[in-house]
Amino acid sequence: MTATDFLSLAPLLIIAIAPVVIMIVISVLRNYEVVYGFSILSLLFAFSSIFFIIPVIPHSIEPLFNIDIYSLFFVGIIIFSALLVTLISYEYIKNLEGVREEYYIILFTSTLGASLLAVANHFILFFTGIETLSISLYILIAFQRSKDSSIEAGIKYLILASVSSAFLLFGMALIYAATGTMQFAGIFSAISNNGQLSPLVISGFGMMMVGIGFKLALVPFHMWTPDVYQGAPAPVAAFIATASKGAVMAVLIRFFFIIRGFDNHNFFIVISAIAILSMFTGNILAIRQQNIKRLLAYSSIANMGYLIVILLTGSNKGIQASVFYIISYFITTLGAFGVVSLLSTCKYETDKIEDYRGLFWKRPWVALVFTLSLLSLAGIPVTAGFIAKFYIIFEGMKAGLMILVISMIVNSVIGLYYYLRVITAMFSPASETKLPASSLSGNIALAVITLSILILGIYPGWLINIIMKFVTL
Amino acid sequence: MILVYLIAILITGSVFALIAGKRSHVWPRVIALVSLSIDLILVIFCATNQTSPDNKWLVDYKLSWIPEFGISLHLALDGLSLVLLLLTLFLGIISVIISWKEINSRVGFFHFNLLLILAGIIGVFLSLDLFLFYFFWELMLVPMYFLIGIWGHENRIKASNKFFLYTQASGLLMFISILALFFVHGRDAGSYTFDYMQLLGTKMPAATGLLIMSGFLAAFLVKLPVVPLHNWLPDAHSEAPTAGSLILAALLLKTGAYGLLRFIVPLFPSASVTFAPIGMLLGVIGILYGAKLAFAQTDLKRLVAYTSVSHMGFVILGVFSFNELAYQGVVMQMVAHGISTGALFILAGQLYERIHTRDLDKMGGFWENAPIMGAMGLIFSMASLGLPGLGNFIAELLILIGAFKTSALMACLASLGLIAATIYSLRIVQKVFLGNKNYNGEMIDLNIREKLVFASLVIVIVGLGLFPKPLFNIAGPAIIKTLDSHKEEITKDDGISKNDADGENIYIFKISK
Fold it and tell me: Any CB–CB contact under 8 A between A271 and chain B?
């Protein structure tokens, strides 16, 4: 490996080294504040290192890594969301009984796994990334060992995620058997030379789709989502909804576009069906939920449905739209889960809609952030979500995907209905629920989120410009 | 730039009102009044100083916003928007004044929402970029939802949800159409833009035109509202606080009418002619059905809400008559209905403040103790039924004459609505101010603040009725501009040269075909 190789991997290396340092620190001195401060600093450091490596990219380290602007964008937003998750975790984790500092170690390893996915150009790294991410998540989800629901969610995720990983791995093996390569570009040239796809390759892709479908919680592989979101500590749920899904999406988009999956008629139909099913199932099941975390879980299923429409556009513009959408979705979801985390304690998860009644009068600032996040999820103007949805619909229409676009529109209305339910609850007469005071770091996170939602909603031109100029595959 | 200031002042004012609301109840009201008054002065200044080089627009301002998608911050003012802007700001000020005593909880947040709605409405009336237009169209929605949902009456939650879902669903259809128009124009002309001026005259096949237009129509007809889509209106109007009902009836409905005039007619000249017979029929149905339902109500606010359905029927009838007389009538109807129905809602609100019911059966005989209020009720009921000398008469007369030129049958049917209007309007006076006394408590007449509000409204409605000429002069050029761009297209489309058939005959020909 050359110096350039190391430099181009700087953000990942920082994230890999940080947990080791934390482990050493813990063995000497177990202090929550120190570990917390160190985590924040390392994440900031990793985030800023991205700007220093721009001169050396695009750079690929054969055969595994491919570091280009596209992957840097994803690494950036993954680290950014890890940073926000750290900020909103402060109070919640602080009050846990037993070990607390280890939480940040595992948060780092899962961030590392997610970032690996963003730079992956090879099945080996693809799988390593997914496993690093999932294994860290098992622990994070079950982190509150004293709580039954947390353990239950952890085990559920463990079983389903390992099954899906098995599918993924088997799919990769089949494709390797048929093509003799594990590099994305190599696979494309191998299958395009043959003309007709062999049954081995088709079943390989099918199995991979099952595996990825599980990780992204697309219908019909979505069953685990609400339970896991509900059982997991709120900040962890925020991380699963954003960084974990975003990273899998990053590698999926790269893989799908490199092998030009949208050209294949069968893929096209399968992906369309999954997209439409995810939108409708997610939104319709969300309507009757009384639990905010479950509601957000279903809403994230629907959102992933919107997002994979982009796979079918088959153009760089589509990828750009998806990058913008993912950024906006990250911020918005972190806003919603951030509020839930700040209002929850490790003893009581404030996650029923009932608990949020009268939030406007009890905690106007938090309620405002929550309202903005929900409106952004619903895609109402002035918020980032509106521009993001516009962008996807725009590219979808350009590519002539009318059925998908129309079902997105129909779903936007259905979605609005349950977001409104939560907003309505917030200005109804107050409930009895006692809410914890929110910490400084949590409020900083919410302020950053609010500003980002509004800036991207009112003046998105600069970001779109950057994305359009630089993000290509 | 001055047009951007109009919106910016209101948004800044709304934030200040929210902050000031923490300290006192008076400051938000004062801030709202001041920012609205500054806006009003600015608008009058605009009206008297034309800054745009060509004669089409009084003020024209364009700034790049999201150039990647061909979206710009394009605002422009012409006679039509000027009239509606004046109406908006005038009624905005009135709505602050009438809420002075009614709204006592969360005053800062109330005025925050109020100013944001007005900013959205002004944005809608000024936008000449379709994306920007949709942006403002949606911007009005959320604060209105809060206004109904927080300060409304008993069933406010249901009403506000219904309002939001109806308008949002129809708005999204419009959004799809905006995008479709964008792409159709882009492929045709090679330049992708949301700019209204460039989208004018986009060529498209008849079927595509109809399809795209139907998305726009959905949004505008729900807002207006037209009969099968009117279901949200009575709930929203009757459950909203007085200022909310006033803004809904007087201003929000007008955005639908404005959309028809500004977008449907010029952008889809041939498709709108195809739709015209159905449009006129929907108008007539609205007039008669709205009137019938109004007569059947026992809730005063619901009654007034249904009269809106009836009056807005005239608007759509006029819009699809495609001639200058009818359009002058439509503009007059927008203003006159805003004033007269607004006044009736204010009256209902003041009655509610005094006797805490909106039930007509529990009212009656109020004239004795509250003669001034009774007189006001009488004046605006008369306006509503179209008494000569008041604004509504001119409006409805012009629309009927204009519609008669296009379709005599529709005009005759619509004129039956005037009789129906007489019945329900007199019923208001009869049940509330005359007749048996069904209410035992004390009835207090209007106080100074309320008298001032009504005095200004009466001056305007009588002024419109006796001296309609200034309004026609302001709105005239804009209307002719709309009709011209429409006519050019039609003659081009059908291959009929202008010499063959002049002006209105074309439309008769088209419709009877």
Answer: no
pLDDT in tens, A245-274: 999 999 999 999 998 888 888 889 999 999
pLDDT in tens, B185-222: 998 888 889 999 888 888 888 899 999 999 999 999 99
Task: Report the C-alpha gap between A7 and A4 in whole angstroms.
Answer: 5
- Amino acid present at A175: I
The confidence score (pLDDT) of residue B112 equals 93
Six-digit token string for A353: 């809609």
Amino acid present at A382: V
Query: In chain A, how many H helices and how many E strands?
Result: 21, 2
- Give the pLDDT band (50/70/90) at residue B54: low
Concatenated DSSP letters for A45-82? HHHHHHHHSGGG-SEEETTTEEE-HHHHHHHHHHHHHH
CB A294 within 8 A of CB A230: yes
Q: Which amino acid is at A348?
A: Y
State the nearest Cα–Cα gap between B173 and chain A, in angstroms: 8
DSSP per residue, B288-335: HHHHHHHHH--BHHHHHHHHHHHHHHHHHHHHTT-SHHHHHHHHHHHH
Choose among A225, A178, A235, A221: nearest CA to A202. A178
pLDDT classification of B503: cutoffs 50, 70, 90? very low
Question: Domain coordinates of chain B in residue numbers?
Answer: 2-512
Q: Which of residues 434-473 of A touch B (CB under 8 A)?
A: 459-461, 464-465, 468
pLDDT of residue B501: 40
Q: Nearest C-alpha of chain B: how many angstroms from A462?
A: 8
Beta bridge partners of B72: B64
Distance, CA of A84 to CA of B248 (rounded, Å): 41
User: For chain A, which residues make up each domain, given as ranges?
Assistant: 11-470
Cα torsion A312, A313, A314, A316 to 10°: value is -140
Tokens of A256: 């799908």
DSSP code, position A122:
B
> Which H or E run contains A112?
helix A102-119
Helix (H) or strand (E) holding B49: none
CB A448 within 8 A of CB A80: no
Quote the pLDDT of residue B502.
43
Q: Which residue reads 């602007």 in tokens?
A: A69
Query: From CA B436, how far away is CA B449, in angstroms rounded?
Result: 29
Average pLDDT over residues A170-185: 92
Query: Can you read off the two tokens belonging to residue B363?
Result: 């009212």
> How does DSSP assign B353-422, residue by residue?
HHHS--BGGG---TTTT-HHHHHHHHHHHHHHHT-TTSHHHHHHHHHHHHHHHH-HHHHHHHHHHHHHHH
Q: Return the ∠ at Cα A299 (arms to A44 and B156), rounded to 5°.
A: 115
Burial of A27 (0-12, 13-18, 19+ CB in 10 A): exposed
Task: Calculate what percentage of chain A has a pLDDT beyond 70.
Answer: 100
User: Is the previous residue joined to A63 through a cis bond, with omega within 30 degrees of 0?
Assistant: yes
Taking CB atoms and an 8 Å limit, are A416 and B168 in contact across chains?
A: yes
- How high is the ipTM of this complex? 0.88
Chain B closest CA to A287's CA: distance in Å? 14
Q: Is A414 on the interface with B (CB under 8 A)?
A: no
Neighbour count for residue B375 (Cβ, 10 Å): 15
CA distance B189 to chain A (A): 16
Beta pairing class for A65-67 and B71-77: unpaired
At CA B236, angle to CA B116 and CA B225, rounded to 5?
90
Residues from chain A that touch B146, judged by Cβ atoms under 8 A, are 427
Rounded distance between C-alpha atoms, residue A182 and residue A164, angstroms: 19
Contact A427 B179 (CB under 8 A): no
CA distances A217 to A210, A214, A297, Å, are 10, 5, 9
